Amino acid sequence: MMAASSPAPRTLSTTIGELPLQEYRLPLGDRTFTILHTGALVAHEDEHRFLTADQSQPYGLALWPASIALAHALGTRDVRGQRLLELGAGTGLPGIVAAARGASVVQTDRQEVALHLARINAERNGVTLEH
């Protein structure tokens, strides 16, 4: 069963302005997950502005290979009824997959903008998560 995803926003509002978003599609089993991400950590010219505004980099806005690998691993496990905590959730992909498979998931991230993106991704994939 595929979740009906809402139209993808083209940009994400951050403390340094709008960042363009890309969509990643991950087919797992009988459904395809769609995840919005920035495609790169941040452009070099934006790095200084983030460090000045937030004192840290928004690493969670990029879709990391480890996140994709963990999503694949969770997609093959029975996690129904389990409570899972995702630290450094970023785009939220592993937690979204786990929630779609019946887990109760709490996502955390140091960056509020990353949690905002994770919320958008959860909604687009039809799952409910705690943040």
Helix/strand structural class: alpha+beta
Low-confidence parts: none
What is the CATH third-level topology name?
Answer: Rossmann fold
How many strands, what sense, and barrel or not for the largest sheet?
Answer: 2 strands, antiparallel
Key descriptive features of the protein:
131 residues, alpha+beta, Rossmann fold, two-stranded antiparallel ribbon, 32% helix, 23% strand
Topology:
Layout: E1 11-14, E2 17-20, E3 22-28, E4 31-37, H1 44-54, H2 65-74, E5 83-86, H3 93-100, E6 104-107, H4 112-124
Description:
This protein is of the alpha+beta class and 131 residues long. The chain has a single domain, classed as 3-Layer(aba) Sandwich (Rossmann fold), CATH 3.40.50.150. Helices cover 32% and strands 23% of the residues. It has four helices and six strands, in the order ββββααβαβα. The protein has helices at residues 44-54, 65-74, 93-100, 112-124, and strands spanning 11-14, 17-20, 22-28, 31-37, 83-86, 104-107. Strands 1-2 form a two-stranded antiparallel sheet. Strands 3-4 form a two-stranded antiparallel sheet. The protein is globular, with a radius of gyration of 14 Å. The model has no long low-confidence stretch (mean pLDDT 86).
